[in-house]
Write a structure and sequence with these properties.
207 residues, alpha+beta, Alpha-Beta Plaits, 2 domains, five-stranded mixed beta sheet, five-stranded antiparallel beta sheet, 10 strands
């Protein structure tokens, strides 16, 4: 189990099915079984408190979950402090993450370069997606204090495309592809990585 602290109120947990103390490694079945899901999340929260000081006493929790298609699950856990605060821990609510794109070309906007690096770190942690051709045709530009990632020729049939879009939705604002906007980036933007931006980011800017 790998736990990353994104902010004081949000963590990401990557867990392999072999680490789940159940013979059922179907995330949908686990979410439907109250006992299994509660046991799993209590174990995650206990480890998060110990490893990254993520305390949830008196907080409401939003848990977003999706499968990485490689025998791993990714959970994003956000805590909210109710008003007035209480000592009782609310039962976790799980919201399956759904994000898809009808485009083979997209432009994504990152607030700053550090966020792009965090995105690359997450992709790097997800094993097989590192070698997937769908992340090879990418470029990064700086324009008006934001970083724009251009992805082209995305293979929507790839089992990893859903995962890629899901991760992008956590780190960047996704813009439908526009040839005019791309031309504007090429003309007025600063080229940061002309090709293989994600692969370069994983290689040089991810831990």
């Amino acid at each position: 189990m790998k736990i990353e602290k994104l902010t004081d109120n949000k963590i990401r947990v990557i867990i392999h099915t072999s680490e789940i103390s159940t013979n059922d490694n179907d995330i949908n079945n686990i979410m439907r079984d109250a006992m299994k899901s509660q046991e799993l999340f209590l174990d995650i929260l206990k480890k998060a408190e110990k490893e990254v000081s993520f305390y949830t006493d008196g907080c409401k929790l939003l848990i977003e979950a999706f499968s990485s298609f490689e025998d791993s699950f990714v959970f994003t856990i956000t805590k909210y402090l109710p008003n007035p605060p209480t000592k009782k821990v609310s039962k976790p609510t799980v919201k399956p993450k759904s994000f898809a794109s009808k485009y083979k070309k997209v432009i994504c906007c990152f607030d700053d370069f550090d966020v792009f690096c965090e995105f690359c770190q997450t992709i790097k942690n997800l094993h097989k997606i590192n070698d997937d051709k769908l992340i090879q045709n990418s470029s990064l530009y700086l324009w008006k204090d934001s970083y724009y990632l251009i992805l082209k020729n995305i293979n929507k049939k790839s089992e990893n495309s859903y995962l890629l879009y899901s991760i992008l939705s956590e780190f960047a604002k996704t813009i439908s592809f526009s040839n005019d906007f791309e031309s504007k980036l090429l003309e007025y933007g600063q080229t940061i990585m002309k090709k293989n931006a994600i692969i370069t980011g994983m290689k040089f800017f991810a831990n």
